[in-house]
Design goal:
The complex is a heterodimer of chains A (about 450) and B (about 90). Chain A has about 450 residues and is of the alpha/beta class. Chain A has 2 domains: about 350 residues, Amidase signature (AS) enzymes; about 80 residues, no CATH class. Chain A contains 14 helices and 13 strands. Chain B has 3 helices and 2 strands; from the N terminus they run H-H-H-E-E. Chain B has a two-stranded antiparallel sheet. Classes of the chains: A alpha/beta (about 450), B mainly alpha (about 90).
Chain lengths: ~450, ~90
């Protein structure tokens, strides 16, 4: 991390828009062991924390989020805050007030979302590890589109203290890097109980090491509406697992997968609409102007002027889902469906070590194609990443093929708290499949 | 289902959002489309017992103790303050 590295980093950021805020210069001493980045919804004391939103412009937290603090204490140097969809609302990182990150394989295409900047940084910076956050697939999706490895841990494994909430019952802090080795090295640093986040406290101890996987399950519901290129790459990957790694593969059915997507959007938007109520022009970021106004007008004015379109849309959806008369039909039903999804996965994972699917149904789309997509099709694009996220199950996305030079991801899902299985499996996978990367900076 | 602009306006009011007429029309169409999709949940079977979190969460309580982790000056630095008070819009 010499001065030349930081010059190269600035040039890189101009081209790929990875960071919403980047460090001015490198450290004065050489005591740092590695560099890392934090998604812009993780609080950091020396950078703004804006979560991709104009409503948080100027917000500089007086503390570090626990995962950031732990990385610093382990000798990490924080390079900056990575670009993201506003509050995590998106699949393509196109909903940010601070620029749209560009895919390292093709700058006319998306990095995926919402941890798009994190995935691109993991891809383009040699030896880098990026802190990402997933609510419904925001680590797996960009990992798949940018051709890196992305680990989303069990809900509660990593403290959410200092995370700008999207959906409290869904948010998970994880890691992205070029290899599972790096994830195995840094994951134990951020994992573990934290008294500041009670949901992280009852977790079993993390013990990483080799784990033998004898069988995996492939749900037939995951094979519908997949682009032929993705299907071909995934089928080849399954053949490799079977032939080279001696894993038996069984096709199974997880019927509730079909309902996971609407259930997720009901729960996520319901939680988001309450979480975002705190942004009213008083405590954080943007101010509302004239305090002589009645509070209703003051709050409404600052919120309307500073929330982006997708944020407004999700606030409306969530507010509607929680209204009297719709609460039973949508919100409570979604909770019941989530439990069914957990139980369905539980049944399959009792017999098999992991569940495998493609990560995304297509390779990263061009920005011009994204502009033409219908809203519901954008939401539906997450149909493979949402089920394990809804169920709080740990999962990892690894590159498993390439089509038109663009990477394709395979998603592996394990039982609650079994991150060791995923990291071990990803390590084995890397012994039989070689990842491709664009030239990185060192 | 049909989403009337009046309903969108009402929901926006509850959510403290002032929408333009164009936004109301656009969001009514969007909400209609998404809620139609949500209605798929009507046919889903759901279990009777469920929780609000995907894993079991225990109540974890800390000892009550007097403390100030973060300097209050830092916390209020970017807020609109008068002497030691936070200033806000009028409530009545």
């Amino acid at each position: 991390m010499d001065a030349a590295f930081f010059e190269r980093l600035k040039t890189l950021n101009k081209r790929y828009v990875l960071f919403s805020e980047l460090v001015d210069k490198g450290p004065d001493d050489h005591s740092y062991g590695f560099h890392f980045s934090a998604k812009d919804n993780l609080c950091t004391s020396n950078f703004q924390t804006r979560a991709g939103s104009r409503i948080l412009e100027g917000y500089r937290p007086p503390f570090d989020a626990t995962p950031v603090r732990r990385m610093r204490e382990a000798g990490g140097f924080l390079l900056g805050k990575t670009n993201m969809d506003e509050f995590g609302f998106g699949t393509f990182s196109t909903n940010s007030a601070y620029g749209v990150p560009r895919n390292p394989f093709d700058t006319e295409r998306s990095c995926g979302g919402s941890s798009g900047g994190a995935a691109a940084a993991a891809c383009l910076l040699d030896g880098h590890v990026a802190l990402g956050v997933s609510t419904g697939g925001s680590i797996s999706c960009p990992a798949s589109f940018c051709g890196v490895v992305g680990l989303t841990p069990t809900y509660g494994r990593v403290s959410r203290y200092g995370l700008v909430d999207y959906g409290n019952s869904l948010d998970k802090v994880g890691l992205l890097s070029r290899s599972s080795n790096a994830l195995s090295k840094y994951f134990p640093i951020i994992a573990g109980p934290d008294p500041m986040d009670p949901t992280s406290c009852p977790q079993p101890q993390l013990n990483l090491g080799p784990v033998e996987i004898r069988s995996i399950a492939v749900p037939q519901e995951a094979m519908e509406n997949i682009h032929p290129d993705v299907r071909t790459a995934f089928d080849r990957a399954i053949d490799t697992l079977r032939d080279s790694l001696s894993v038996s593969v069984e096709e199974v059915s997880i019927p509730s997968m079909k309902y996971a997507l609407p259930a997720y959007y009901v729960l996520a938007t319901s939680e988001a609409s309450t979480n975002l109520a705190r942004y009213c022009g008083m405590r954080f970021g943007a101010k509302g102007g004239d305090i002589a106004l009645h509070f209703n007008d003051y709050f409404s004015r600052v919120r309307s002027a500073n929330f982006g379109k997708e944020a407004k849309r999700r606030i409306l959806l969530g507010t509607y889902s929680r209204m009297v008369g719709f609460r039973n039909r949508y919100y409570l039903k979604a909770l019941a469906v989530r439990q069914t999804v957990i139980e369905d996965y539980g049944r399959v994972l009792k017999k098999h070590g992991m569940v495998a699917t493609p990560t995304m149904p297509f390779v990263s789309p061009r920005f011009t194609d994204i502009e033409r997509m219908k809203l519901i099709d954008m939401y539906r694009a997450d149909f493979l990443t949402i089920p394990p996220n809804l169920a709080g199950l740990p999962h990892i996305s690894v590159p498993c093929g390439y089509a038109d030079s663009m990477p394709i991801g395979m998603q592996l899902v394990a039982r609650h708290w079994d991150e060791a299985v995923l990291l071990s499996a990803a390590g084995s996978w890397e012994s039989s499949f070689k990842y491709r990367f664009p030239e990185a900076i060192r | 289902m049909t989403m009337e602009p009046e309903v969108v306006k009402k929901v926006a009011g509850i959510a403290r959002l002032q929408l333009t007429e164009t936004e109301i029309t656009e969001f009514a169409k969007d909400l209609e489309e998404v809620l139609d999709y949500f209605s798929m949940l009507d046919e889903a079977s759901g279990v009777e017992e469920y929780d609000f979190n995907p894993v079991k969460i225990q109540d974890v309580l800390r000892e009550d103790s007097v403390g100030q982790d973060i300097d209050s000056e830092l916390l209020t630095k970017r807020m609109d303050t008068y002497e030691e008070w936070v200033r806000g819009p009028k409530l009545v």
